Amino acid sequence: MSSAVERLEPGLVRFRLVSPTLAPVNVYAMETGAGWVLFDSGFTYSTDQLCACLAELGVGPAEVAAVFYTHTHEDHMGGGVSLGDAWGCPQYVWEGTRPAFENYYDYYDACESWRVWLGRRMAPSEWMERLRQLSSGRSGKAFRQGGDGLLHGAVGVAFGEAVTVGGRRFRCEDARGHDPFHCVWHDEACDRLVTGDIVLGLPTPLLERIGDNITSYRATLQRWQQAPEPALILPGHGRPSVGLGRALERSLGYLEAGYALTVGFLEAAEPVEPLGAVLESFETLGPAQFQVAFIRLANTMSQLDEMALAGLVEQREDLRWRRTGPLPAYADYLPLVERL
Ligand SMILES: [Zn+2]
């Protein structure tokens, strides 16, 4: 069995698919009375890896009984689209997942590129060139791969509704924020929760250019704190674990740390130019730090945008930021943004 395939429990397998530029992503396979079902599908360009993993279970895409998606990001839904009509099964998404019912490739191509986003949101500075240098030499793979851009057999499921496959029920639950279409799937028989990207070992990226939203993401984490603890959580990246409550606390902690970092920038020197402030916060800064630096920048901007909606900061015409009044402690900040 290859290192990309890990048998976690009887009837539960994790595939780990890799990319030249992005973090490795998990696909989970669960065995039901009707055959294997998958959760997420990897990158558009990792379908060879996905099919090799499936082959180790003795099936091809045409024999998979169902595919379930947590969200639309390219590392989760890309493979399903790229395999086009190779699937012979329903592919379940939350019913509001617009890109799954349109042309997925066109949807993502219409989103702003990170370079355009950077030019629109950041004041010109020497840091822009520094970031370009960090990103150079990272040759990615083309996003558009196989298929016609459609998710064949896409079926929408309402929040709170369950899909039954081979005698097993999988319930779709609301987890929007990291993606406006994010859901989680609860495997009721084994009490496992497929959590996508809501709780990761690192801060979950919040990218404005693809519609991620910090306020709804935080609300999702807080709402899930009220949920009963499942037996196992299966995240989109990193290792499966027990302890949803602990994972939620850690992710909420990352948001609190992000607020503290942003407040620190504003208190250290105004007006703030977030790109420089973020890159300067790294002790070592090389190409290996590009992805982490970019996520910290994106999340800092999401934080500043939220603070602007709460009337606490403003982005000046020169794209630098200033406070409009005193900044509250985090405990006093939360009630302000709950009403947004
Ligand atoms: Zn994601």
Structural class of the secondary elements? Answer: alpha/beta
Radius of gyration: 20 Å
Cross-sheet strand order for the largest sheet: 1-2-3-4-5-6-7
Number of strands: 14
The number of helices is 11
Present as ligands are: zinc ion
Describe this structure in words.
With 340 residues, this protein is of the alpha/beta class. It folds into two domains: 5-112 and 143-251, Metallo-beta-lactamase, Chain A; 255-338, no CATH class. 35% of the residues lie in helices and 19% in strands. The chain is built from eleven helices and 14 strands. The protein has helices spanning 47-56, 74-82, 98-101, 104-110, 114-121, 126-135, 214-224, 244-268, 274-280, 290-309, 330-338, and strands at 5-9, 12-17, 25-32, 35-39, 66-68, 91-94, 154-157, 162-165, 168-174, 183-187, 192-196, 232-235, 313-315, 321-323. It has a seven-stranded mixed sheet. α7 (214-224) packs antiparallel against α8 (244-268), α8 (244-268) packs across α10 and α9 packs across α10. It is globular. The mean pLDDT is 95. Zinc ion is lined by residues 71, 73, 76, 178-179, 197.
